[in-house]
Amino acid sequence: MKVIICGAGQVGGQLARHLASENNDVTVVDRDAALIRQITDRLDVSGVAGFASHPNVLERAGARDADMVIAATQSDEVNMVTCQVSHSVFSVPRKVARLRSKSYLDAIYSDLYRRDHLPIDVVISPEAEVAEAALQRLAAPAAFDTESFLDGAAQLIGLTIDEDCAVVNTPLRQLSELFSTLRAVVVGVRRDERLFAPEPGDQVYPGDEVYLFAATEDVPRTMDIFGKKNRKSERVIIIGGGNVGLAVATALEAAPGKIRVKLIERDRDVAEATADALNRTVVLNGDGLDIGLLEEANLEQADAVLALTDDDKTNLLSCARAKAEGCPLVIALVNDPSLSALMQPLNIDAFINPRATTVSSILRHIRHGRIQAVYSIGDAEAEVIEAQVLNTSPIAGVRIKDANLPEGALVGAIKKRDEVIVPRGNTLIEVGDTLTVFALSGDVVAVEQLFQVRIDFF
């Protein structure tokens, strides 16, 4: 498949890496020639420097015979015009646009994106995706990372192991014997800043960060077994009144249970606009690092603080200060995944990676069968891949123990028809099954090859 990705930033770069690794013909367009040089040096992709919405630039990128255009620049308007030009001038069959402005995303204007108006096949909102991720973290406060798979039937959960965890010093193979009906499996362990896929005889220790898959229905029991209690958040402080903060506050206002929300925004104009858009949320104008303002927001009574500004350092420091003042749950938005290593030293409970969230969402929308979703863990240390088994897949009709999975890969959950099952060595992989596979970064390509990810959807 020939794909043109417009925008060589974090999202465009990740998309280019994923799609190029699947032997697609990928061309990246960006106005910044230096970014183009970096991405073409690093990846097996072509690059064109120029404005993505200009017809001559798209023609140089090969739009006349492209199968798809993904418009992921920083400008909504450039993304929209890029899709329009791709459709009207070059008849590109499939067009995906990343749009940030809430006005463009309003449901009453959804008719705008019809082919006879503004021809965009899939609209992705990073702010909406990140807001949903924030709400997931808030719903599972004991986890530092969560993501849904298998159409919501399974969850990836990241947990830090405490001293009182019931399964400390227990070989992982014994979990299935001790809890025979529990549909959960540990797929990754980070210890001493090193992430690895555990063997059946490995144990978990206090301080370990573990990634596990669990059937959604079994998540509460899984959390309980691992010594985690989910506490309902009734009083929430949000730092940052931009699109993400506004989306989270709006969702919390609509949530059952009358959650009390206070929002802190540094920019006065943004604070006033946010206050006008919300009904019950109290909006305060000021710096989220100001302890006096945090006290005015009743930090001592807050159940959770979400730092959702567009500045990573502000988010990390705001959360660290709130935690030092006794807040039980702090969640930070972190654009630079390398900063996630500071989470434990700063005593931050959870973080949200917008790049991983947005890339996963785009891939979920543009893929049909085979690899259906990708979720990045940490600073690209590992990925979780959701893929369907086709009759041409090398692993079809093979038991997991004979599937030749690389050492750094583990199957986390399998959906057979409408049932989620825990993978065992003797589990037979059948055509039509959907698997979630945890893979260290060095083993991702080998895992993808097991599903024969030559994309020919169109």
What attributes characterize this protein structure?
single chain, 458 residues, alpha/beta, Rossmann fold, Alpha-Beta Plaits, 6-stranded parallel sheet, 14 helices, 29% helix, disordered C terminus
Tell me what you see in this structure.
By secondary structure, the chain is an alpha/beta fold. Among the domains are: 2-124, NAD(P)-binding Rossmann-like Domain (Rossmann fold); 235-328, NAD(P)-binding Rossmann-like Domain (Rossmann fold), CATH 3.40.50; 369-450, Alpha-Beta Plaits (2-Layer Sandwich), CATH 3.30.70.1450. The chain is built from 14 helices and 24 strands. The chain has helices at 10-21, 33-42, 55-60, 76-88, 102-105, 126-139, 175-178, 219-225, 243-254, 268-277, 291-296, 312-324, 354-366, 444-450; strands spanning 2-6, 25-30, 46-49, 68-71, 94-98, 122-124, 145-149, 154-160, 184-191, 194-196, 209-215, 235-239, 260-265, 282-285, 304-307, 330-333, 350-352, 371-377, 382-388, 398-399, 409-416, 419-421, 428-429, 434-440. The protein has a six-stranded parallel sheet, sandwiched between helices. It is globular. The relative contact order is 0.11.
CATH topology of the domain at 2-124: Rossmann fold
Low-pLDDT regions: 453-458
| Alpha carbon gap, first and last residue | 8 Å
Rg over C-alpha atoms, rounded to the nearest angstrom: 23 Å
